[in-house]
Design goal:
single chain, 296 residues, alpha/beta, Rossmann fold, Alpha-Beta Plaits, 2 domains, four-stranded antiparallel β-sheet, 12 strands, 38% helix
């Protein structure tokens, strides 16, 4: 089984590049290939000009990784966790102490620095997990769904930490399946599904792929071929998906055209039981490109 296939993009210093896709789309595998934890069977990965496969140690010197699973030791303190991870990147003595103190301050954990991590809340552990990935001030930061399962307050702090890394000049690669995070955080986005990069660009460029058309999702009973033929007679309509129990249309001004839609489908023998209307967004782009919702 191929986990990632034909995924190609360039992420830049001082910018946040988002990989947006549902669980199982290939985001974590992509992060694994970039970090050197997964060896790709084909293709090349370069970090700061260094080929990850051929020059792994040199490429990894520039990297910071915040994995989806917590990579902290709960029996020791936050300071000890940060000192350990910093030492793996060559931090020693006074330099290590300064870096650890800065990471604790940035993550809002300075007042809990000497407590065992097992006493921390889930959100605090997530923040420490993030701090361990930035303690050595990496030039390239890989973030694999860093806000999964955190409380709203910790989420806000984590997202501000991400923005600060980019402001300070780091190249940030951010994976998420949260649509609102992608829209509010990322300078550029790649939409990934079933291991393939199906669209990429700025938020404005991606929204332009949808145009000004709304997405109209209908649930009920349909003959797919007859439904497609009926939709073809509607001004500006595009059939995104046609199944026996659902029909999705991209349609400009859909709210004004609902009577015409229902009339055309009824004449084609369809039975509409539920209607959902979505304005142009990343969510509607994902549905248009894949025929399914991001969370499915």
């Amino acid at each position: 089984m191929v986990a990632v296939d034909v995924v190609s993009f360039v992420a830049e210093a001082g910018r946040i590049f988002g990989l947006l896709g549902p669980n199982g789309a290939g985001k974590s595998t992509t992060i694994g290939c970039i970090s050197g934890l997964v060896v790709p069977t084909a293709g090349h990965v370069r970090v700061m000009g260094q080929d990850v496969a051929r020059s792994g140690p040199q490429a990894r010197r520039s990297l910071g990784v915040v994995p989806q699973e917590l990579a902290v030791y709960e029996e020791v303190s936050a300071t000890e966790n940060l000192s350990y991870w910093g030492s793996l990147h060559g931090l020693r003595g006074a330099e290590s102490k300064r870096a650890v103190a800065e990471a604790l301050e940035l993550s809002g954990l300075a007042d809990r620095a000497t407590e065992p991590v097992k006493r921390f809340s889930g959100g605090m552990k997530r923040r420490l997990n993030f701090a361990c990935g930035i303690v050595h001030r990496p030039r390239v930061l890989l973030l694999d769904e860093p806000t999964v399962g955190v409380d709203p307050q910790s989420r806000v702090r984590l997202l501000e930490l991400v923005r600060r890394q980019a402001r300070d000049g780091a190249c940030v690669l951010y994976t998420t399946h949260y649509m609102e995070e992608a829209e509010n955080l990322c300078d550029r986005l790649g939409v990934i599904d079933r291991g393939r990069l199906i669209a990429s660009g700025t938020l404005e460029e991606l929204r332009g792929l949808v145009g000004e058309r709304d997405l109209l999702r209908l649930a009920g009973r349909f003959d797919p071929e007859k439904a497609r033929a009926a939709a073809a007679g509607l001004d500006g309509a595009e059939v995104v998906q046609a199944e026996p129990d659902s029909l999705t249309l991209a349609l400009p001004g859909a709210s004004r055209k609902l009577p015409a839609v229902f009339e055309a489908l009824s004449a084609a023998g369809a039975e509409v039981r539920e209607t959902t209307l979505t304005r142009p967004s990343l969510e509607s782009l994902f549905i248009k490109l894949t025929g399914r919702e991001l969370r499915e």
